Amino acid sequence: MVQIKTAFTNGVKRLGQADIPEPEIEVSLLLSHALKMGRTKVLLSGHRVLNAAELEIFEEKISRRQAREPLAYITGEKEFWSLDFKVSKDVLIPRPETEFLLEKTLGAIKTPAGKSGKRVNILDLGTGSGVIAIILALELAAAEVTAIDCSYKALKVARHNAEKHMVNDKINFINSDWFDGIVEQAEFDVVVSNPPYIAKDILAKPFGKTQDSLEPEVGCFEPLLALDGGDRGIREIDTIVAGLGKVLKPGGWFFLEIGADQKKEVFDIVKRTGIFDSIAIYNDYAGLPRVFQARKSSGWKS
Question: What is the rounded (10 degree) CA torsion for 190, 276, 273, 239?
Fold first, then answer.
């Protein structure tokens, strides 16, 4: 017989040996998920004995996490913007950096939910789990969002999340490679994207072995399609920027999540288009360049 407190102690030891930070928090979450109990109840029920089925489920989850599989893939969910979202191995796990991207996007648009305002047409390129499109649809009362991803499986997750948060009627999901699925003459007030921006040489390094290599949770488990940005990490950014002239309205906003070392190169790419009269780059809460913002000249015509 194994009590909760014993399972907890053993789990913490195993995750600690795997160099996983804050193992106590992760083990309590895995126990909560395995036992279908709230975390507080789990922690207050230390003497409760796990039945055979519960112990088997918990052991399977601990083994997966010990092998450095991300917690979000094990539980099938991730909190983002204080909401729960479904995730799977077909989508990138939402991160705080993307919350920062949303903060900057919403701060510039300034049409919060509940206020009257004209319709805002938004294009989310590479929607993945759908968190960007869904948060914008929730926060902007007059938003109409087109969310594009080249992965059909990712869009299945995104549609599930949109239905869960009751904004599926405000989002048009399209299975497409960037702009290919957009009808001609479509124009947007806002284009936002968190594209793949990891350089190929970083992806080629042994995971977790050097300061600039990816953690095993990322390199071994998250979808390569959502990470691989080509030789310098800007292949997809280059493609996106090249297509903005046709889809972004005069005076429209462009928001982009970038790698911390891509500030100058992305600035040069955007500047060369000649269609933007306002460009800004914002550092995230870690002090690293993270969000690129540009506004198309109001007098520029495609």
Answer: -20
